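RETRY 2/3 - previous attempt timed out on the joint model. Re-submitting the same 984-residue input unchanged.
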Amino acid sequence: MKPVDWFTQVLEVAAALAAAPLFQGWVNQCRAWLQNRRAPPLLQTYRGLRKLFHKDAVIALHASPLFRAAPYVVFSAMLAAAAIIPSMGTRLPFSAAADAIALVGLFATARVFLSLAAMDIGTPFGTLGARREMMVGFLAEPALLMVVFVTALISATTSLPVMSERMATQSLALSPSLAFTAVAFTMVLLAENGRIPIDNPATHLELTMIHEAMLLEYSARHLALMEWSAALKLFNYACIGFALFIPWGPAMGGAGPFALSAAIPALALKLAAAGGALALIETLSAKLRVFRAPEFLATAFLFAVLGLLVHLLLGA
Amino acid sequence: MIATLASPLDAILALLGVWLVIGVAGLVRPMNLRIAGRSLFPLGALCGLAIAAIAAASLGLPVERIQLPIGLPDLPMHLRLDALSAVFLVLLGAAGAGISMFGAGYFRSGQGTPPGLLCFQYHVFLASMGVVLLADDAYGFMVAWETMALSSYFLVIAQHRLAEIRRAGFLYLMMAHVGALAILLCFGVLQGGSWLFTFDAMRAAHVSPLWAGAAFLLALVGFGAKGGLVPMHAWLPEAHPAAPSPVSALMSGVMLKMAVYGMIRVAFDLEGGLAWWWGLVPIGLGLFSAIYGIVFAAVQTDMKRLLAFSSIENVGILFTGLGLAMVFRGAAMPTLAALALLAVLYHALNHAFMKSLLFLGTGSVLHSTGERNLGRLGGLIHRMPWVAWLTLVGALAIAGLPPLNGFVSEWLLLQAFLYAHALPYPFVNMLLPLCVGVVALVAALAGYVMVKFFGVVFLGQPRERSLADAHDAGILERVGLAWLAFGCVALGLAPAPVVAALSHVGVQLGVGALPHNGAPWWMLVPFDTGQATYAPSIFAGALLAGILLATAMVRVFHHRRARRAPPWSCGFGALTGRMQDTAEGFGQPIRHLFTPFFAMRRSLPSPFDAAPRYQVDIGDRFWNALYAPLGPFIDRLAGGFAALQRGRISVYLLYALATLCVLLALVL
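RETRY 2/3 succeeded.
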C-alpha cells in the first residue's frame, strides 16, 4: 500500500462525513423544487445538526446504557461502511477487511442496534417503529444480497473495489442482467433509507412512520448522531450504486494523485444527478401501506433474481 | 499417568471416565446441593476444558485407534480419534464447560429430581456424547447413542411432577427411538453383506448405488430426527422448554451437533459411492427447516420455545451446507466441497456457543422471575445487567452480525453458494445460486427474532410489577455465561486459525482442502485475496475507532450536559409498562406475511361481548397432518392385535396348533 492509497482512504471517509448532510440537503432541495415548494437552503441540514449539538440532552428516566451507546455504534457502522465503498479510489487499504457481504452485514448491525435502542424506552411508538424497521430490513436484505451476488458473479469477486474495477473495464454496452439488478438495487435503496414508497422522511404522523418513530425519544447530541448516520447511510447507498453500476470516475488501481483530483468532481456530478433522480422518484410515487411493503420488496428481489437468471442463461 | 497422557485418545478416554466418576460421586449424597452443585459441576467443567484442549491439540495428528475389551463377544469396542471426532470433541468440551459452570450455580434443591441424581444423569449424558464421537463400530455407537438419549430423557423430565413435562419427555423419547431405529437399519445396510459392524468394514464394503441411497435416507431420517429437521422436529419445541435451562443448553447446543456429526460421518466417511444428487435432499430439507424454524420462532411467546425453533433453523442451515458439500464433492470440485464442509463445522461450533449462551440466559431470567412467557417480562437490563449484556452478545452473534461469530459461518456458506453456478449439472447450477436468497432471508429473519427476543425480555419497561425484585445471576452462573460469550467473540474475531484447524477434517475425509494463499493469521481468505477477504479484527478495530471518533466529535461540539426526564412518547403522559408492544405484536407481521405456514385459529369477540376476548392459536401443520393422526392409527392397530387375545385357553391352544401346522408346512 502506497501513501496515496492511505490518503485516498482518509479522504473518502472525511468526504463522506462532510458531504453526507449536503447530499441530503440537495435531495430535499430538489424535492421542494419538484413539488413547487420554496426550497430550504442547501446548508439547512448542517444547521440542524449544529443546533442539535448545542442542545441539552434529555434522556428518558429508565433509559439503559444501550440507549445511549446505540447512536455511537450506528454512526461508527456507517463510517466503516464509507471506508469500504470505493467512492473515490479503488485501492483502499481498509477494504480488504470486509467484502460486499460484510457490508450487508454491517448495515444489518446498524439496523439491529437502532431497533434495540428504539425498544429500550418502552414507548409504544418506539417498539412499533423497531418492529416495522426490522420487517422492512428482513425483506430488503435478501434483495440486497441478491444484487451483490449478481454483480459478484459477473465480476468473480465479492470484494467491492475489485468488483468496481472489473465493472469499469467492461464494455459500455448495457448488459440486461445489470439493468435488472440496478432496478432492484434502487428499490432496496428507497426501502432501506426510509424514502417515499416505504417510509416518508418528512412525516411525523405517528401511525405511518418507521424511521422517525425509532428516534422519537432521542434528543440533542444523540439525535444529531442518528440524523447524521441516516444521511451517511443514504450517501453510502448512493456510492454503492455508483460503484456497481456507474463505476467510471474513481481513481482505478494504482493511479496517481491526478486521477484522485478527477474523481472528486466525478463523484459530485454523480451525486447531484442521483439526488435529482431520487427526488423525482419520491415526487412521482405515493407512500405504500405498511403491508404493501413486502410486495414492493418482493418485486425488488424478483428483479435481482431475473438479473441472476439472465446472467446465467445468456452470460450477459 | 505420563504414559496415558502421551496419546490423546487415551487421555480423552480417561477424562470421559472422570466424567462418569463425577456423576457417580453425585449419587453418594444425592440431596446435598453443596457437594453436587458447587463442587462436582465445576470439576466437570474443568474436565470438559481439558478434553477440548487435548482434542484441539490432536487435530494435526494422524488417526488413532484402540480396542477396548468390552462389548459383544466377537465385537470388542473399537474407538477411533480422527479430525472429525476431535472437532466435535472440542465443541463438546468447550461448550460443555460453560454449561457445567453455569449449572453449578443453577441447580437448586426443590421439587423434582434431587441434585445428586441430576449430577449423575448430566455427566452420563456428557460422557455418552464423548463415546458417540469416538465410537468406531456400529455396536459401540448405538450403545452410546441410546445412553445419550436415555440420560437426556431423564434430564428433560427433571420436573416430572408436571404432567405436561412428562408428556414432552415421552414425545422426545419416542422420536429418539424412531431415529435410533433408522440409524440401526442404516448401519445394517452399510455393512454390505460382510456382517462386520466395525466402521472400517463399512468403509471397505461395496454397496450398490440403490442401497447406498437407502442407507443415506435412513441416516437422514435417524440423524434428522435427533437434530430436529422438519418434519421430524415435533419433539424439539416441546422438550427444550420442559428441560431445566442448562439441560436445554446442552441438548440444543451440543446434542443436536451429534446428529450433524453422525450425518457427516455417514455421508463423507462410511459411504463411498453416493451419487452427487443425493446432496440435494439435505439442501432442500435443510432450507425448508431453516425457514420453517425461524418463521415459527418469530411468533412464539415462550422464550425457550422461541430458542428451540431457532435451533431448528440452525440445524436446517447445517444440513444445507452439508448437502452442498456433498454436491460439490460429487462434482469433483474439492476446494468448494471443503469450503462448504468448513462452513458446516464452523457453524456447528458457533451454534454450540451462542445457543447455549442464550438458553442459559433464559435460565437466569426464569430463576429470577419465574416467568418464561415473554408477555410478562421486560426491562430486565436494569435488574440483571450481567445476564442482559452477555445475552446480548449471543443474540447479536446468532443474528449473524459482524464482527461476531455467527457471521463468519454465514459468510463461508454464502461464498460456497456463490460458486454453485460452476457446477456441471444443468438446472441445479441455476437453482442453487437462488438458494442464496433463502439463506439471506433466514439470516435476516434471525435478526428480527433476536431483536424481538432481546428487546421484549431485557429492554423497555417491566410488564409485571413482580419484576421489580428480579436479581442478577450468581457468580458461578456469570462465569459460565462469560465463557460462552467469550467463545462467541473469539470465534468471531479470529476465524483464520479456526478455519486452519477445521480444514484437517476435509483433508482427512478426502473431501478436499482450501488452497494455500499465504494470508496472514488475522485475515480469512478462502481462495485468493482478489476474490474475497474478511478480517474481522481489523473490522472490529475500525468500528471501535469510529465510536471513538464519534465520542471525540461529541466532546468537541457538545457540552455533554444531559438531564433525565420522563419519556416523551409524543407528549402522551400516562405511559405504563402494559402499553408496550407485546411478543404477539412482534409476531404479527410474520403471521401476516407467512400465513400459509401456520395452522391458525382466531377467536374474535363480537361487538356485543360484555367481556371480549381475542385469542389466536398458532398450530403446527406438520403436527396436525402427520403426528396427530398417528396416535389414533396406532391405537387402532393395537386394538386389532388385542382382538387376538381372547383370554380363553382353548383359543390360545388353537393358535399354537395353527402355528405348528404352518411351520410344518414350511419345513416339509
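The longest strand of chain B covers residues 64-72. Closing ticket.
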